[in-house]
Amino acid sequence: AAPKGWPLIGSITSEFGGRWFRRRWEFHTGIDLACPLRTPIRATEEGKVTFTGWQSGYGWTVEIQHSLGFSTLFAHLSRSLVSVGDIVKAGDIVALTGLSGNTTGSHLHYEIRTNGIPVNPLKYIKMR
User: Fold this and answer.
1) What SS3 class is residue 70?
2) What number of CA atoms fall less than 13 Å from residue 106's CA on the CB side?
3) CA nearest 75: which of 91, 56, 90?
4) How far is CA 36 from CA 54, 86, 98, 99, 120, in A?
5) What's the pLDDT at 126?
6) pLDDT at residue 49 in the model
7) pLDDT in tens, the chain (128 residues)
8) What is the dihedral of CA 94, 98, 102, 105, to 10 degrees?
9) Alpha-carbon span 115 to 95, nearest angstrom
10) Burial of 24: CB neighbours in 10 Å, binned 0-12, 13-18, 19+
11) Beta strand 70-80 pairing with 59-65
12) Single pTM value for the model
């Protein structure tokens, strides 16, 4: 039931955990994957789209609820290709990368949460 694999192919530019960002210390709740603007983003597990829209800091965002309390969040998008209520399968294209929200360049901010709490996505990416 856990999300597995890469949502896109890109270089990791910021890992999960504490980091300096714009001259202050913060906890980074996901990983950032650098990639060209409008790169397709794939769902990493089957689930139901629970949010598409603007979130402060994240910019244009898609959230997907999976089974057993897992959810994924894709942020800084240029465009969502799904709607709230859609059922997606692993591998379905759900959005395109962008520059929206608090960002310094084109990339995907990717989060995995268990029961609403962010966990390190790298553990799950390497499962597939």
Assistant:
1) strand
2) 13
3) 56
4) 21, 26, 8, 10, 24
5) 76
6) 98
7) 799 999 999 999 888 877 666 577 678 899 999 999 999 999 999 999 999 999 999 999 999 999 999 999 999 999 999 999 999 999 999 999 999 998 888 999 999 999 999 999 999 987 65
8) 140
9) 23
10) exposed
11) antiparallel
12) 0.91
Amino acid occupying residue 125: I
Task: Give CA–CA dist 92/45, Å, rounded.
Answer: 9
Closest CA to 71 of 104, 17, 29: 29
Longest dimension (CA), the chain: 40
81 Rama sector, left if φ>0, alpha if ψ -120 to 50, beta otherwise: alpha
User: To which residue do tokens 């294209």 refer?
Assistant: 93
- List of residues 6+ apart from 3 with CB closer than 8 A: 43, 44, 45, 66, 70, 72, 112, 121, 124
N-terminal to C-terminal alpha carbon distance within the chain = 12
- Taking residue 54's Cβ as centre, other Cβ atoms within 10 Å add up to 11
Using CA atoms, how far apart are residues 35 and 39, in angstroms rounded to an integer?
7
